[in-house]
Design goal:
The protein is mostly helical and 101 residues long. 95% of the residues lie in helices and 0% in strands.
């Protein structure tokens, strides 16, 4: 075998080795991307659960506070019906003037 043939065989072997390394690298990179994607999705899912829980808690607080305020307003109207009527009339009059301009 001549030196030229050995160089060609050695180059071919090197190219095959590099090709195998590149294929392995592609496979490893694909696995890494899948791992990162799955981890990110799990993190997002956990945060969505946290946000949902917090939203439900805040909604419950808002509902309870709204009911308390409505009951307090109803008591004030019952205690002072004439004052409540005059306030409602005044607000309606002002609202009518503003909206009909």
């Amino acid at each position: 075998m001549s030196t030229n043939e050995r160089t060609k065989n050695g180059a071919a072997t090197d190219v095959e080795t590099i090709r195998g390394d590149l294929d392995s690298l592609k496979s490893d990179l694909a696995g890494l991307m899948d791992h990162v994607k799955n981890g990110a999705l799990q993190g997002v899912a956990g945060r969505v659960d946290d946000v949902t829980t917090e939203a439900r808690r805040l909604y419950g607080q808002f509902t309870a506070e709204s009911e308390r305020q409505a009951e307090a307003l109803a008591r004030r109207v019952e205690e002072r019906p004439l004052t409540s009527l005059l306030i409602a009339f005044g607000l309606g009059f002002l609202g009518g003037r503003i909206f009909f301009r």
